[in-house]
């Protein structure tokens, strides 16, 4: 499926979908059934695809696509450690594309023994208007030895003037005081300790209407 972008390609009278309620990151137990869901509204028809680590998930008995009204779901029959990672719900039509991202951390008993960082609160994806502030907050159960934020796979430099990274104990915040379309994308918070690393992914949508 092609995703048309640019004003020249927008269908007359068509409007892109909008995310009303974002995906929520969570820790799940190995072998459990898991359902991810987000709420998407659209005045015009749109398609939805789900991705795991940026690869499209083909609907199957193990990964079912479902929706009830405006609520779109990915139903995972049984979760395994290899299913850990970033999940994205991508909704699009000829007028545009929006997406929401979250992290699923499949808990394996041996992980706790390793002492890798654990989240007390995950950051949440955002959809805001241009000029508004975007604030992502991650809270760990205890301070990590090293943390970093990245955008679309590139680590955000502390000298970045558009964004501000702060920390207060185990609470870490990324703030974009005045968001613009160039800030749209996928953000990842990574925490590293002697026992390993853990990460959380979110997305930022900026409307310029």
Automatic annotation (TrEMBL):
Residues 17-105, 117-203 form the Ig-like domain. GO terms for cellular component: myofibril. Pfam families: I-set. Gene3D superfamilies: Immunoglobulins. Keywords: Kinase, Phosphoprotein, Transferase. One of its GO terms (molecular function) is kinase activity. InterPro entries: Ig-like_dom, Ig-like_dom_sf, Ig-like_fold, Ig_I-set, Ig_sub, Ig_sub2. The keyword Transferase applies. Transmembrane segments: none annotated. PANTHER family: IMMUNOGLOBULIN, MYOPALLADIN ISOFORM X1. This is Myosin light chain kinase, smooth muscle. The gene is Mylk_1.
